[in-house]
Every structure is written in structure tokens, then in C-alpha cells.
Specification:
The chain is an alpha/beta fold. The chain has helices at 7-21, 35-43, 55-67, 78-82, 86-95, 123-128, 141-153, 197-211, 228-235, 253-263, 288-295, 299-311; strands spanning 25-29, 48-50, 71-77, 101-105, 133-137, 157-162, 181-185, 190-194, 216-221, 223-224, 240-248, 270-275. Helix 1 (7-21) runs parallel beside helix 2.
Length: 312
């Protein structure tokens, strides 16, 4: 895997390889351009469809192609290919069980400069409430490339959450992502469970805390529904755990973790760190750090909250 490549380009570069070898692979895009997509237009234009600014139509077209035996990837800016299309996804992919791969770019505050219409901070809660849909949040470009192939082999609908900014690679190219989660830093007593870009923030925080004598581990949970058995086995001896997400708290990633703990009678003190809904939508500008600070999920705020929770 190349370094300094975006999750988007890593994903589509792998899909391009698959599409060149399999004419049944089709890409449906809603007016989205990228250098990694130009190869599809140039080399295999019969497998590339641009529906324009019509995301709901993109989901319906993709589902129809899937019914005819095609392996379809449908792509757009993340809030518009999910929230705008919830009814289409619910009927065609959750109810009718038509398998497609939904690819959204710019999850969380990936489009930090475009305001709340482009901030996607509700989608995990919405998408995980429906059956037959698997949510995969990309942590780095290595994972993104791997999930292009994983979804190619999948027989159900997958939702791929791509972060817009280029992040450092945390995983080796031969890593097995089939477990849905991975322990990136071990701990005897405390763990931060995080997903996507927040895993990078969690690692920064725990590395700083380690210099202060506090050992906190990090578990990257990249697939929802979460692997119940592996999660419980991994955290069963922990004294406390923290769930960290770049999304509204109700129904989100932290809620998914807490449901597993409650349903399996795993009584570990747990704190959810994410976006409180009483803060509403953020109209502040000035970059990612400004927005995260507004919601209290920037590095300094998370570090302070972890210390307080551990000491309580």
C-alpha cells in the first residue's frame, strides 16, 4: 500500500483492478469526480454510470443492476448517499435484501469547511437500525483497499464510510480485517473503543497519557454490527472503558457498544464520548480542531475527560 494516499483513492484503485477482471463490476456515481475514477471512464466506460446530482436514483439504479447480477458500488458525498436516500436503502436493500455497496466520502467532519449540511454525524445510528446492512468505517488507506475486495466478495449490502482527509496508515498490508475490530494498544485496566478518524485521536491521547504514567489501550472497532464475542473477550478484564466517536451520541457507536455490554451482562463502567445533541449543529468555521473543540472531542478535551473518568 502506498503511503500518503487517500482512503477514497485506495478504495477505487482496488475496485478498478476488480472491475478490469470482472465485467459484472459496475460503479454508479452521483456527480462525483476523482482522479481514481477517471480510469473507469477512460478504460471501462461501459461499467461506469454517472447519474448526476440524483443520489436516490443512484441507489435505485444500483439495486436494479444488482438484481440483474451485477456487483455494484454506488458513490457520493456521504450525507447525500445515506440520509437523503434512507427510504430507498430501507426498501431496496434492507427490506428486499438487494446487495450493493454504498460508498460515502467525507463522514464525520470530513467536509469541515462546508457547514452542517455536509457534516455526517447521524449515519451510524440511522443505518445500523436497519437489518441486512453492514457499516464499515475506514481507519486508514490499507483498510480501505482491503474492504474494496471484502465487499466484492460479500453477498449483503455494505456501507463504506470514507474519511476525506488523508490519514497515516496504522495497519500492515497483510492485516486480516474479517474480525471487525482490532486492538492497536494493549492495556491491563482501561480501553478507549473508537472508530474511524477518532482512532487516530485516541492513539495520540493514550500515547501522551502513557508518558504521564497512565496506561490506556485502544481498540479500533471498524465494523457494525460489532463482533460481540470478540469484543467481550477483549475487554472482559478491563476496569473501565471509553467509547469515542465523531457522531451524535444517541444511537451511535457508543450506544452499540453499551447495548452489547448490557445484553450480555458485562458490568464494566463505560463512558461515551461523542457529540452531545444539546449542542446542536455546528456553524463554526476554522478547521477540524475548532469544530471538535466545540463539541468537546478534540485532543485536549478527550485527554481531560479520560483522566477524570479513570480517576473517578
Amino acid at each position: 500500500m502506498k503511503h500518503n494516499i487517500s482512503q477514497r483513492d485506495a478504495f477505487w484503485d482496488k475496485v478498478y483492478e476488480l472491475a478490469k477482471a470482472d465485467r459484472n463490476v459496475v460503479i454508479v456515481t452521483a456527480d462525483m469526480g476523482a482522479p481514481s475514477l477517471d480510469k473507469f471512464r477512460r478504460d471501462i466506460s461501459s461499467q461506469f454510470i454517472n447519474v448526476g446530482i440524483a443520489e436516490q436514483n443512484a441507489i435505485t439504479l444500483a439495486s436494479g443492476l444488482a438484481l440483474s447480477g451485477k456487483k455494484v458500488y454506488v458513490y457520493a458525498i456521504s450525507p447525500f448517499i445515506t440520509i437523503r436516500c434512507l427510504e430507498q436503502i430501507r426498501v431496496e436493500n434492507a427490506i428486499m435484501k438487494i446487495p450493493i455497496t454504498i460508498v460515502g466520502v467525507g463522514v464525520g467532519f470530513g467536509y469541515e469547511d462546508s457547514g452542517p449540511t455536509h457534516h455526517l454525524i447521524e449515519d451510524i445510528a440511522m443505518m445500523r437500525s436497519m437489518p441486512c446492512i453492514t457499516i464499515n468505517t475506514m481507519t486508514d488507506s490499507t483498510m480501505s483497499s482491503s474492504f474494496a475486495e471484502i465487499t466484492y466478495k460479500s453477498a449483503t449490502t455494505n456501507y463504506i464510510r470514507l474519511y476525506r482527509q488523508t490519514l497515516p496508515n496504522l495497519y500492515a498490508s497483510n492485516h486480516d480485517f474479517s474480525n471487525g475490530l482490532a486492538t492497536l494498544k494493549e492495556s491491563r485496566d482501561y480501553y478507549i473503543l473508537s472508530t474511524g478518524s477518532m482512532t487516530h485521536l485516541a492513539l495520540d491521547v493514550v500515547n501522551k497519557l502513557e508518558k504521564e504514567g497512565l496506561n490506556v489501550g485502544v481498540i479500533d472497532v471498524y465494523t457494525v454490527p460489532i463482533n460481540h464475542a470478540l469484543l467481550i473477550e477483549t475487554i472482559k478484564n478491563a476496569k473501565k472503558i471509553i467509547c469515542l466517536e465523531e457522531g451524535f451520541l444517541p444511537g451511535g457507536f457508543g450506544s452499540a457498544v453499551c447495548e452489547i455490554l448490557f445484553d450480555n451482562n458485562v458490568l464494566i463502567p463505560t463512558k461515551r464520548m461523542g457529540l452531545p445533541v444539546d449542542k446542536g449543529y455546528c456553524y463554526k468555521y476554522g478547521g477540524l480542531d475548532v469544530i471538535r473543540a466545540y463539541y468537546g472531542v478534540d485532543k485536549e478535551s478527550v485527554e481531560k475527560k479520560v483522566k477524570e473518568f479513570v480517576a473517578a
